[in-house]
Specification:
single chain, Elongation Factor Tu (Ef-tu), domain 3, transmembrane, transmembrane helix, 3 domains, 6-stranded antiparallel barrel, HlyD family secretion protein, MdtA-like_BSH, membrane
C-alpha cells in the first residue's frame, strides 16, 4: 500500500506542477516587457455571402449548415427554363447568321469570278483594238462591263462583312445567354465551411438574393482595440501574436493587417487593462493562410483570446510569446 500511496502522491505532484506552470505562463504573460501591448478580442473568419445573380426559383439545394465545400462546388440551382430557352433562341439566330455569311461568301466568290472574266475580256479587247479588229465603242463596252463587275464585287464584299458582323453579334448573344444559363447554377466561390443555409428548396429569390453564408478558413483575424497612444505607434504589416483561451494560450503568429483611421467608443465586450477608455481604434491581426491551414478546424470563429503587438519596433518578444516552431 505504501508504494501505491507514493505513486499517487507523485502523480498529484506532477499534475500540480503542470498546472502551476500553465498558470505561471498565463499570469506572467500579463507582465509584458516595455514596448509591448495587449488587448482582448474575438477570432473572426471572413464571411462570404453566396447569392444568386438573377431572380428565380430555387429547384435544388445540395448543402447543409456545417458542410465543408470545395471551391466551385455546386451548392444550388435555380429554375433555368427561361434561361435555357433564351440560349436555344440565341443559338438558332447564330446558325441563321452563319448561313447568311456562307451565302454572302458564295455570292462574293461568284462576283469575283465575274470580275476576273471581265478583266480578261477587257485585256483581250484592248489587244484587238490595237490590231484594229474592234471599234472604240466595243472597247468602251468592255470597260463598262469591268466597272460594273468591280462594283458588284465590292458590294458583295461589303455584304459579307455585314453578314459577319451579324454573326459576331449572334455569337456574343450566345455567349451571354450561356453565361446567364450557367449562372443559374450557384457554386461556392471559395473553399470553406457553410455557416448558414438561408433559404430552402422552392424559395423565389430576387437578383442578389442570398442562398448561404460561407466562412473562409484561410482568411481569419482577431479584432482588438487600442487607445490612441498605442494605436498611433502601430503600422500595417507589423508582427503580432494571438493567444486563444480555448487553446490554453497557445501562441499563433499574425500580422497587423488593418488599423482604423477613426476612433470609436469601446465595445461593451472589450475588457481593458486600465480604466475603460472612451475612444479606441480598431486593429485587425491577420493569421496567414498557411498558419490557418496548419491549424485546420481547430480555429473557429468567435474564439476569444488576447492579441499582442509591439508599440516599440525594437522590443523583443518574450519567451512566453515565442512562435519559432509555428508556421509563418
Amino acid at each position: 500500500m505504501k508504494w501505491r500511496d507514493a505513486a499517487i502522491g507523485a502523480g498529484v505532484a506532477v499534475i500540480v506542477a503542470a498546472g502551476g506552470a500553465g498558470w505561471y505562463m498565463v499570469q506572467h504573460r500579463g507582465d509584458l516587457p516595455a514596448g509591448l501591448a495587449r488587448a482582448n478580442g474575438r477570432l473572426e473568419l471572413a464571411r462570404i455571402d453566396v447569392a444568386v445573380k438573377y431572380p428565380g426559383r430555387i429547384t435544388e439545394l445540395d448543402f447543409h449548415e456545417g458542410d465543408v465545400v470545395a471551391s466551385g462546388q455546386v451548392l444550388a440551382r435555380e429554375d433555368d427554363t427561361t434561361a435555357r430557352a433564351q440560349l436555344d433562341a440565341a443559338r438558332a439566330r447564330l446558325r441563321a447568321a452563319q448561313a447568311d455569311v456562307a451565302r454572302a461568301g458564295a455570292e462574293r466568290d461568284a462576283r469575283l469570278s465575274a470580275l476576273h472574266l471581265s478583266q480578261l475580256d477587257l485585256d483581250h479587247a484592248r489587244t484587238m483594238f490595237h490590231q484594229h479588229l474592234v471599234s472604240d465603242m466595243e472597247l468602251s463596252q468592255h470597260q463598262t462591263s469591268l466597272d460594273t463587275a468591280t462594283s458588284a464585287a465590292d458590294a458583295a464584299g461589303r455584304a459579307v462583312d455585314a453578314a459577319q458582323a451579324v454573326a459576331d453579334a449572334a455569337q456574343a448573344q450566345v455567349t451571354e445567354a450561356a453565361a446567364a444559363d450557367d449562372d443559374m447554377t450557384i457554386r461556392a466561390p471559395v473553399a470553406g465551411r457553410i455557416e448558414y443555409r438561408i433559404v430552402e428548396k422552392g424559395a423565389v429569390l430576387p437578383g442578389g438574393g442570398r442562398v448561404a453564408s460561407l466562412l473562409d478558413p484561410t482568411d481569419m483575424y482577431l479584432t482588438i482595440f487600442f487607445p490612441s497612444q498605442q494605436a498611433g505607434r502601430l503600422r500595417v504589416g507589423d508582427q503580432a501574436r494571438i493567444a486563444l483561451d480555448a487553446l490554453h494560450q497557445q501562441v499563433i503568429p499574425a500580422t497587423i493587417s488593418f488599423i482604423s483611421p477613426e476612433a470609436q467608443f469601446t465595445p461593451k465586450y472589450v475588457e481593458t487593462t486600465t480604466e475603460r477608455d472612451k475612444l479606441v481604434y480598431r486593429v485587425k491581426l491577420r493569421v496567414s493562410p498557411e498558419t490557418a491551414r496548419h491549424y485546420g478546424d481547430v480555429l473557429k470563429s468567435g474564439m476569444t483570446g488576447d492579441g499582442y503587438v509591439r508599440i516599440d519596433p525594437s522590443a523583443r518578444w518574450p519567451a512566453t510569446l515565442d512562435v519559432a516552431d509555428a508556421p509563418q
